[in-house]
Amino acid sequence: MVAGLVGGVVGDRLSDAVGPDRPSDADLPAPADGVALDGTPSRPADSVAGIAAAVLPSVVSIEVTGGDGVSTGSGFVLRSDGYILTNNHVVSGGAADGDVVVTFADGHERDAELVGRTTDYDLAVLKVDESGLEPLVLGDSDDVVVGDAVLAVGAPLGLDATVTTGIVSALHRPVQAGDDAESAFIDAIQTDAAINPGNSGGPLVSSAGEVVGINSAIAQPPGALTATGSIGLGFAITANQARHTAEQLIETGRATYPVIGVLLDTTYGGEGVQVSTGAQQGQPAVTPEGPADLAGIRAGDVILAIDGRPVARSDELIVAIRARQPGDAVTLRVRTDGDERDVRVVLDGQESG
User: Fold this and answer.
1) What is the mean pLDDT of residues 269-297?
2) Cβ of 275: how many Cβ atoms within 10 Å?
3) Is 219 in contact with 119 (CB distance < 8 Å)?
4) For a FRET experiment, which of 96, 98, 250, 287 has its CA 20 to 30 Å from that of 312?
5) Count of C-beta atoms within a 10 Å radius of residue 22
6) Contacts 24+ apart (CB under 8 A), 336-339
7) CA nearest neighbour of 134 among 187, 204, 78, 53
8) PDZ domain spans which residues (predicted)?
9) Is 15 one of the catalytic residues?
10) pLDDT value of position 229
């Protein structure tokens, strides 16, 4: 009581000491008027905040309950009539008899049906019973260059509606995505935008607000057994690949991938990539009547480049081929017994698992 009374008295006397000449307003600068007509803060449409505001309503979080427990990931609206694109490894735990629930940006939930999935491209399409959704535009990922600004959107660690920014750090990275049981080699876009567990399946968005990639994998330091978080090395499946695969999954529930019909020697340590010198597990090194066989490629040949792009490892050749479509023609630089030549190969198709 004494302390309170003393404080009150001192405050009253200080107030009197200031006197009636004390200004009633400190006249501090007023904030700029950055409010839109609906009362929310406004930002230029091409700013990071503007792009995020346009994209976030079309990004969803996904919860999958299956035999291995509960897992979460991200996805985005592909079509207005309820089709949603995500990673296969996000939904694979519930693919057999599990439950998949999609949560939209405004908080409402919908049960989802698995339309189709592919382990080879680590992509899956879901369908919810809803219409009038706002889809995101799949951009042309062939137009992406190193240094382009990008946003990664999703639900890392279950934190929905999260946006991170960065640049495209590299292109054509051969990356293994998915889990150990169902992994895929992808021809990936590398970004330093922070990507963490839970971001998988969410969009990588350009400064034009278009999806250029689907966030799918995180690099980890040597010795790390599981994905622990972003170290500035994230990887996304290209939008062009996603578009083609999603169309196949929606139309047939299955996807195909291109092959040249050879087995590769992963122990080879020389220049280029070597076709196996003999059969492996009963399979011939070169598939009879397959694309490579018809083009004149033989067991033991070394493939040095594809369409002028050098390849030094087996996975580089695999992802470069899988970035094409069945029926496409590629030019391989091939060495046979020291002699080099260019070989035109028309890719065959194989149904994905």
Assistant:
1) 95
2) 22
3) no
4) 287
5) 8
6) 336/298, 336/300, 336/301, 336/302
7) 78
8) 261-338
9) no
10) 81
Secondary structure, 3-state, 175-232: EEEECCCCEEEEEEEEECCCCCCCCCCCEEEECCCCEEEEEEEECCCCCCCCCCCCCC
pLDDT above 80 (res 34): no
pTM of the prediction? 0.85
DSSP helix/strand/coil, 141: helix
Element (H, E) at 52: helix 48-55
Domains identified in the chain and CATH numbers: 52-128 (2.40.10.10), 141-239 (2.40.10.10), 256-351 (2.30.42.10)
Block residue for tokens 């990275």:
173
Q: How far is it, in rounded angstroms, from Cα 275 to Cα 302?
A: 6
Angle at 139 between CA 133 and CA 143, to 5 degrees: 170
- In angstroms, the CA 96 to CA 75 distance is 20
pLDDT at position 183 is: 75
Residue in 120, 122, 192, 301 annotated catalytic: 122
Annotation says 352 is catalytic: no
Active-site position among 92, 169, 200, 230 = 200
- Would residue 89 show up in a list of annotated catalytic residues for this protein? yes
Contact 195, 152 (CB under 8 A): yes
Alpha carbons 136 and 56: distance in angstroms, whole number:
10
Give yes or no for a contact between 276 and 299, defined as CB atoms under 8 angstroms apart: yes
DSSP line for 316-346: HHHHHHHTS-TT-EEEEEEEETTEEEEEEEE
Interatomic CA distance for residues 158 and 217, integer angstroms: 16
> What is the helix (H) or strand (E) element at residue 351, kind and residue range?
strand 348-351
Query: What tokens were used for 173?
Result: 């990275």
* DSSP-derived 3-state class of residue 173: strand
Which tokens is 3 given? Answer: 């302390």
Question: What is the C-alpha separation between 225 and 232, in angstroms, rounded?
Answer: 18
The DSSP 8-state label assigned to residue 40 in this structure reads S
